[in-house]
Amino acid sequence: MAGIGVLALQGGVVEHLEHLQRLGVGATPVKKAADLDGLAGLIIPGGESTCLRRLLHLYELDEAIAERFRAGLKLWGTCAGAILLAKRVVDGDPGLALIDIEIARNAFGSQLASFNTVADVPAVAAAPIPLTFIRAPKITALGPGVRSLLRIDDYYAAAEDDAILVTAFHPELTPSLAFHRYFATKCGIATVEADEVDWRPGDW
Ligand code: GLN
Question: Which positions does UniProt annotate for L-glutamine binding (predicted)?
Fold first, then answer.
């Protein structure tokens, strides 16, 4: 059965794998090009985008991911992963450059400016979703063909085109499975009814 991979070079890997497993989705850590075989989707996790960009090149995964993407692999970048997928990085170099967005790194300030919040994301779930932002970027512009999923103040926090999802925040660090379910659906993968309603705003 086709599953979803999580790029496992650096950053928040295990939490993504666990969220996928809770949904009954086959979840594979991806460390080399051959690990992409048979996958319907790939999550590029949060971490440090300059470090991840270098590692992707060192392990020759940048070309391999671009090639699989052209063959239909769906992609989701969380935080640093979204930076790597963006075609335009304010004051920085693009990485994989596959989705037509502009993104500004560290746009809230230092690590101390990290925060949790809750938002309605109607395309993704009927109930409000908890969000955690860690030294997060802001998506500052969307090109044609890219849709906003969540706009907050002066930036987009989540957006997508037909093949790529980008989130400035980290759904894998919250109890909610909503974004993982949404990405699995985008990949054409059915999910089990998991313990979705497992958090209340007061508990988190
Ligand atoms: N600030 C990091 C970067 O620019 C991203 C932070 C994250 O992924 N939580 O790479």
Answer: 47-49, 105, 134-135
Whole-model pTM: value is 0.95
Cβ-based neighbour number of residue 84 at 10 Å: 27
Q: What's the CATH number for 3-203?
A: 3.40.50.880
Instruction: Report the sign of the C-alpha dihedral through residues 192, 195, 199, 200, in that order.
Output: positive
Q: Is the pLDDT of residue 1 over 80?
A: no
In a 10 Å sphere around its CB, with 0-12 CB exposed, 13-18 middle and 19+ buried, how is residue 175 labelled?
Answer: middle
The string of pLDDT tens digits covering residues 149-171 is 999 999 999 999 999 999 999 99
What residue segments make up the domains of the chain, in order of their start?
A: 3-203
Catalytic-residue membership of 63: no
Residue tagged active-site, from 15, 16, 79, 187: 79
Give the whole-angstrom CA distance, residue 106 versus residue 68. 29
